[in-house]
Amino acid sequence: MPGESAGPSALGTVIVTGGASGLGAAVARAVADGGGTPVVFDLQEPVGSGFAFEQVDLADPRAAEAAVRRVAEANGGLQGIVTCAGTDACGDLGDVGAEAWERVIAVNLIGTAAVVRAALPYLEAARGRVVTVASTLGIKALPAATAYCASKFGVVGFTRALAAETADRVGVTLLIPGGMQTHFFDGRPEQFKPPADARLNRPEDVAASVVFALSQPPGCEVRELVVAHSTESSWP
Fold first, then answer.
1. Cα–Cα 20 to 30 A to 77, which of 57, 64, 71, 117?
2. Architecture of the structural domain at 13-227
3. CA distance linking residue 155 with residue 137, whole number of Å
4. pLDDT of residue 189
5. Sequence-distant (≥ 6) Cβ neighbours of residue 98 within 8 angstroms
6. How many H helices and E strands in the chain?
7. Distance in angstroms (rounded) separating the CA atoms of residues 172 and 128
8. CA neighbours closer than 13 Å in the CB half-sphere of residue 137
9. Average predicted confidence (pLDDT) for the chain
10. pLDDT value at 5 more than 50
């Protein structure tokens, strides 16, 4: 009937950066469960998933772009990109080595932009979608987190500008997740870990919001999603 919604869109082939662990692994599984075909970009192969895999270091933007084009050509195009890959270097600015600090920007921000840039022609052809993963620390700054905040504030600005630039051609969603039950905090000094009594979201629950955004019909935009535990200390 005229005026009715077109209904959910097929997920198709979706590249998930950082898809070997944490939120990325949960997103890849959710895409597959939703009938899509996830392709994982990561340094480590996802163990036991059976998903297509490209070994990619997001700090090397030219290699990331080449991998996107390779996957798109092999799969007859792309319908989605989800940029879950992320890293951190905690500590005061003067205490974090320059290479470690700059790698955070390279992976979290420049790698995100590189993957999206390479995917745009394919996404435009398919009326596809991008979901970028920022953080509550992309809108709220904390001490000893200059690299991470700079990168995630950058993802927020990048995504909002991208949404304006590609309106009615590519769907763009900004995901702002709070803390999750992943290995992201492993290996850090105790002062940079969530407290023992912190209540964190399951990555599977956050991944469901990603599939919701990817599944919207053309013209229906989920522009931004904040997904955090009800007791999340970094929100609002």
1. 57
2. 3-Layer(aba) Sandwich (3.40)
3. 11
4. 66
5. none
6. 6, 7
7. 9
8. 16
9. 91
10. no
